Amino acid sequence: MEWHEVQAQILAFLQDEQQILQRKSTRQHNGFHASNSHQNGSNGYCTVEWNLEILETIIAAQQKPDALSLESTIICKAGILQRQIANLRWQRGQPSPPDYWRLECQRAYL
User: Fold this and answer.
1) With the C-alpha atoms ordered 70, 73, 75, 81, is the resulting torsion angle positive or negative?
2) Cα separation of 97 and 90, whole Å?
3) Cα(61)–Cα(70) distance, rounded to whole angstroms?
């Protein structure tokens, strides 16, 4: 199988995953607003949105003509997220910065 065929299969897989996350996001969004409670389920809703965000960046990277392999893209993006987490500079005993949970969630998704 040639590189462009493998790349097409990878993109098809990633786009399927994107559709699944979009449907999940829509269901959670509808349930979140229907419950009239902005406390219940908000973490799960954010998690899906954050995963969708990272998946969209991976898809965009894979659509470039000079795209790296999927594995390389994931490793590079995980490294970037790890550096961003390290740069948050928060101390033990202090509340976690809001970006910390988004970045950790995205890193775990990768």
Assistant:
1) negative
2) 7
3) 9
